[in-house]
Design brief:
By secondary structure, the protein is mainly β. The protein is built from no helices and 11 strands. It starts with a strand and ends with a strand.
Length: 128
């Protein structure tokens, strides 16, 4: 059974930083791309970032480019999202997700249907 467990969320002032972690179990983690999504109240879940299975390529939504960094540690079965220069509009529940396709070579999916398993989410609140 696949499990994804996020941690690292919290309350931070604008301009601050947080590092989210997502620990995976139940599948060969290193064979799958991983993604981070977020959802604010009243809004749809949106793509934030993704990283290919080998960690060689990373992808970001324009609004977080230059501020967020995704990485992965296959030895620890963990993917990270380092978030710097946080803004109030980054406030959301952040979810990690496991790609539906093994060893994907096609374009990274930025829609929720491209991911098969999801964590429970971790709240990030940025105060102004």
């Amino acid at each position: 059974q696949v499990q994804l467990v996020e941690s690292g969320g919290g309350l931070v002032q604008a301009g601050g930083s947080l590092r989210l972690s997502c620990a995976a179990s139940g599948r060969t983690f290193s064979s799958y791309a991983m993604g981070w999504f977020r959802q604010s109240p009243g809004k749809e879940r949106e793509f934030v970032s993704a990283i290919r299975s080998n960690g060689g390529m990373t992808y970001y939504v324009d609004s977080v480019k230059g501020r967020f960094t995704i990485s992965r540690d296959s030895a620890k079965n963990t993917v990270y999202l380092q978030m710097n220069s946080l803004k109030p509009e980054d406030t959301a529940v952040y979810y990690c997700a496991l790609d539906r396709a093994i060893s994907r070579t096609t374009p990274i999916r930025r829609d929720i249907k491209g991911y098969e398993y999801w964590g429970q989410g971790t709240q990030v609140t940025v105060s102004s």
